[in-house]
Automatic annotation (TrEMBL):
Any single GO BP term: peptidoglycan catabolic process
Signal peptide: 1-19
InterPro entries, per database record: Lysozyme-like_dom_sf, MltB-like, MltB_2, Peptidoglycan-bd-like, PGBD-like_sf, PGBDSf, SLT_2
Residue ranges of every copy of the Transglycosylase SLT domain listed in the record: 26-314
Superkingdom of the organism of origin: Bacteria
Keyword Isomerase: no
Annotated Pfam families: PG_binding_1, SLT_2
Source species: Thalassobius vesicularis
Coiled coil: none
Protein name: Lytic murein transglycosylase
Amino acid sequence: MRLPLALTALLLSASTAIAAPCGGSFSAFVQGLRDEATAKGTDAATAKAFFAGVQQDAKVLKADRAQGVFQLDFTTFARRLISNDRMKRGQSNASKYASTFDRIQQQHGIAPGVLLAFWAFETDYGAFQGDFNTLNALVTLAHDCRRPQLFRPQVFAALELYKHGDFDPARTTGAWAGEIGMVQMLPQDILDNGVDGDGDGHVSLKTSAPDALMSGAKMLSHLGWTPGQPWLQEVTLPARMDWSHSGIDTTHPVSEWQAMGVKPRSGKWDAQLPASLILPQGYKGPAFLAYPNFNVYFEWNQSFTYVLTAAYFANRLQGAPVFDAGNPDPGLSGAQMKQLQQKLVARGYDVGKIDGILGANTRKAVQAEQLRLGLPADAWPTTELLGKL
């Protein structure tokens, strides 16, 4: 089964967010949207028809608050998402849409595995695209005061798609966070990067794989993908090294990693490329070098574990072996992680929301405390660290 659509909870649009009001009466809020639409040039009849049936969706708000999936460690997460069936269907789709992937490679320099992995994780190759009414979801999240700056512009982007004949307010469905289609793109991203890959005159991300794949490729390209360069490579580590060099914010040329004893587990590498050493479960667990293209993944989704798993699955679809899980120290439970975050905050660190999720800020704080306490500074929190704090 496909991972719940909560995976796309933190998907960010490439568009610039604007300040917007939120809260209060939902009907008054919708009227305000209609007024703003007409003020921006949409005729009154079109605006009225677009917003006519919009309703607040309580299930959207419930999904927005449910983030438990992000508490899983990388190995568990990856094994849950990457099945033999997904591998086989990925290979089958690579052959079925070979001409589309050839065009993508020629135009954007993006390997098939990259888009196949997104396609698999977001919608199980189009099989489960979400059944939330997209307009209801967008307006509900724009009205909610948690992230209105992200979702209000998407309402007006959906209105533009409606004017083009590519959005039906009553029938367009998708993820709870407003993403549409096989690779789950927000309306503004469809406006900016939508491609008519099959030549029928419309951008149909829900029904046309060529449209979805070409649009996803264009979006990655606009987000900064460097053509022809790698994104992630599994490596083996020496028995000893300064683990404080690990982490997404520390970058060295591959030649320097090589001098420290880091080696590619398979394939070749470019000694001049910059890369970061990623140890998702500490120095005893899986190890990867992340190249500049890896950072582009965070423009698509903000979850570290999701991004790493998607990048790794892209490698697998390109022929890489199954990663070596190693023998990492056991991680913390959700409750322990919250306790750790509270202790880090008490020491002056900004870990963001105390949510039991090992995010980027928590990792940085953990690594700093490991250094202070003389522990291996690999940013992987253990019960030993929790006890010492």
